[in-house]
């Protein structure tokens, strides 16, 4: 581990992309996520494509369904030191 160096290039992820990535990792369709959250499928699509802002309340509902903290969705590029995250 002494030779470990973090990658130089980082990928920027938008709020919508973070929702899509987490949804796909859990093998959920937009329709299935809609059923879990009560958020219309068209709204989920609009969020993922950056046409609609996520908002705090939607972030909470989606985070519950996607089993993550709302901050993961709202601040996808935020870096947290390992000591704090654990």
UniProtKB/TrEMBL annotation:
Stored SUPFAM superfamilies: lambda repressor-like DNA-binding domains (SSF47413)
Domain HTH cro/C1-type span(s) in chain numbering: 19-73
PROSITE patterns on file: HTH_CROC1
Annotated InterPro entries: Cro/C1-type_HTH (IPR001387), Lambda_DNA-bd_dom_sf (IPR010982)
Molecular function, one GO term: DNA binding
Pfam entry (one): HTH_3
Name of this protein: Transcriptional regulator, XRE family
Provenance organism: Sulfuriferula multivorans
